Structure formats: C-alpha cells, structure tokens
Amino acid sequence: MDTGIINHCSGLHREDVTRAIQELRSLGFSIEEAAAGTSGYVTCLELYDTFTAPAGHNCILVDHPGHEPVIELILQHLPFNFDALPLLVEGESKIIKYWTDKVVIEKFKPTVYSYTHNRYGSAAGTDDIRIRFTSALYRKMALLHTGIPYRPASAFLAEITHEQGLFVVQRLVDVCNIETRIKRFHIGSPVHRYLYTGKYPSTRRDEAPIVKWTRFEDPVVCFDWRHPLMDEEQRRLADEPISDDYAALWIRDVTFAKEMARNTFMWLEAMFFQAGITLIDMCIFIDRSGKMIYSEISPDCMRMRWNSNNIDQSESMDKDLWRRGAAPEKLYENYEKAYSLIFH
Question: Structural domains in the chain?
Fold first, then answer.
C-alpha cells in the first residue's frame, strides 16, 4: 500500500474515517488503515478529532470548524503530480486527468465563450472561482435528505489546493454527449430559436402567450445534443435541442434525469433567493444512468440576477455580462460576489 491512515479518532468519527478509507480503496486508491507507529508507506497520515488531538500540535482534524467530509480531507493530503497523470480529455474549459481508473482530477481554464455573440476570450481568476462555487454547492447537495424523491446526487469528491493550482476531484462517470437545461424564464436561446411565440395562446392558466421573460410556473427541463465549437471546415456550431425520446437513446432513465434536474434547480433557486439572487436558468451534465450529476455547476453555466425586483434591469451575476461586452475583470468580480453572497 502507498498510503497508511492512522486513525486516532473516537466514536462516530473513527467509524467515519474507516468508511472513508474503504470507499477510497473501492475507488482505486492504494490506501489502508494502519496501526500507530507503522512505517513503510510512501505517505502516512494521522487523523484526529477534537477529543483525541494532542494539545499544541498541528493535527489533521476531521471535525475542525467548517470541516470537509472525511473522504475529501484525506484526498486533500494525498500527493500527486498533475502534469504526470494520464490525460482523459482536454477541452475548451477544462483539463481532465485520471487519478485512478475510477477517479478524475480536473483543472479549469479561465476561458469564456458565447455562441450567440461569437465572443471567445479569457477572464483571469474565473477558473478558480468556478471550482470553489462548484465544490461549495456539491457539498451542500450531499447533505440533502436521502428521502427526497429524485434526490440530486453528484460525482464530487474533493476540492484540492495544491502547489500546481486549484483542482476538483470527481468520480469517473459513464458520460454521454447531452447537456440538460433547466429554465424558469423564457430567455436565452429559446427566444432566438422559437420565433413568433407571442402570436399563440399557451397552456398557462390565462392562456397568455409566451414572450421574452415569461416566468414558467414549473421549471422547464430540456436536453441538448452537444457540438464542438467548430466543425471540420471551421464553421461555428451550436448545440441542438433534442426530444426526450432522442435523449433516451443515450440516457437510460430520462424521467429520473428530468425530475432530478428540476429538483436541483428548485433547491438552488430557494438557496439563491435567501442571498437576494434570482436563478433564471442553468445547464448541468447528467451521466448515462440519468441519476448522477457531474462536471461543474457555477456562474459559467447559469443565469442569475442580483436585486431582482425588475428582472430584466437587475444586475447580471453570470456569463451574460460577457455576452453584453463586459470586461473580463467585471466577470470575475461578479462571479466572486455571487459566491460570497450565496456561500458566506
């Protein structure tokens, strides 16, 4: 074994450490629980709680104020060299590498892109704030009651601050090429794609037509088939909306995926509202089972407004700033503001 964990914790904390070690072993890490005084490991970690930590020592505490889950705490102390890890995929916004055959470690890029406005660039600092936002959100998601129907679940394992940068660690999932969109308002690409909706009565209670900024009684969930930014002849490509039946060719449980996506949106909507922010819409990635959310959830993949008495005139906290021509520094500033308002 490469890593030995000496478990000095007491009671339930001791059980938590044992379970975390077992889960990490199942995820392909060479790790085991070791007896005090054991040697011969590449890495040896000693874990304590506030009841067992020796006074005056700088210990790894599993129950420090604002502590992360035990599995995240252990991962934060395991050595790795990101540059030397085998590459899974590198895209426009992330570099993803294998840590084990069941776990990936991701480094975000500070890139920003808008298809509609054909604007591509870089906004320094947004890579790290996207990771911090994603990690904080997934930690809260993990605390949701297990009895919730279509309970949101994520592949998130850890956020790691390292000499090579800030990283997010997730379970390797069985991915598909579909993005899931959830919208509370008629805004964004549907406004440009679905023309003349204002001419026809809707199925809403008052049969009012759907126009820009119409608020839906229930969040609308839809699927997109994803395209690269350019095809082989360097022509720009947009993602294409697909029906549920088509989505079911790649997602095994489309019904669960849709309801989980809707519940995720409504949970975040309520959380953001407490911070004075209105969630407009968002995009997430769901694995082929239809039951696991992966990748990021950050201001980069949602619309949200601050001080939202007049939703169309309120301040954008998302990539709409970029679409409107804002400077990269403003984008970072508002991403950071959203993070602070929601999670602090």
Answer: 3-75 (no CATH), 82-171 (3.30.200.20), 178-343 (3.30.470.20)
Q: Tell me the CA distances in angstroms from 96 to 65, 79, 101, 108, one per residue in order.
A: 31, 17, 13, 9
Phi–psi pair at 70, nearest 5 degrees: -60, -40
In tens, the pLDDT along 73-107 reads: 999 999 999 999 999 999 889 999 999 999 999 99
Measured CA to CA, the distance from residue 196 to residue 191 in angstroms comes to 9
Residue the block writes with tokens 């298809």: 115
On whether the pTM is more than 0.70, the answer is yes
CA-to-CA separations, 214 to 50, 128, 170, 184, 218, in angstroms, rounded: 52, 34, 36, 8, 12
17-60 pLDDT, tens digit per residue, is 999 999 999 999 999 999 887 778 999 999 999 999 988 777 88
Tokens found for residue 199: 């001419």
